[in-house]
Amino acid sequence: MADDLIGLYRTMLAEGQASPVIQAQLAQALLDDRQYDAAIEAADIALADDPNLIAARLARASACKNLCRFNEAARDYEAVNSLVPGRWGILVNLGTTYAEMDRLGEAEACLRRAVLSEPGRKEGYANLASVYTRQEKFALAEEACRKALSLDPQLIIAHQNLAGILATTNPEKARFHRDAAFRQRQIFIEPGAPSSRPVLVLTTADASGVPLTHLLPREHYTQIRWFIDYA
Description:
Low-confidence stretches: none
Order of helices and strands: HHHHHHHHHHHEEHE
Strand order of the largest sheet: 1-3-2
Strand content: 5-15%
Largest sheet: 3 strands, mixed
Shape: globular
Helix content: 55-70%
Distance between the termini: 37 Å
């Protein structure tokens, strides 16, 4: 399907139907086909004609994020947010991009705005809880996790975060949440850039203090984490 659309849009452009909108549609089709560099190139052509074309800017942002070019992705999401402020999806994408860059204060602000704009979306609370946890704002993180679990009692990331938050204060509850997470799933893939090397990481649910993200940065590695204590 993606190949058909890519061919269609390229034919239209070759036949003289060039327009920023068609270029943006080509960028999105290339993005869907995981041709991230080509998607950025097509989006740049569209944006040269219309810098405020939201579809092109979003395709470019997503392609940059998949390439782990987080600074560029953040600039594109910021541009879209200035054009259509307060959209849940844009705020979540911008917040999680800031989190990838360790700009945790800005990530928190975006994600807080996201959950206020659409309080019925579990993903907003789950991402906010992860940012709070990294900031060691554990009371706020626990509150956000519990809100996410009220919307989806099986949400793995919320159980994982609660297990870490409660590990020292309430080991029994921490064990409950750890089991709830890892009995559902034992293998997690953290994708890196397309050129990254896959690395199998044998780990345990209690090894949360190991800084894997810094040891194996996403620009260079795709992590396949296997929690062997639940294998």
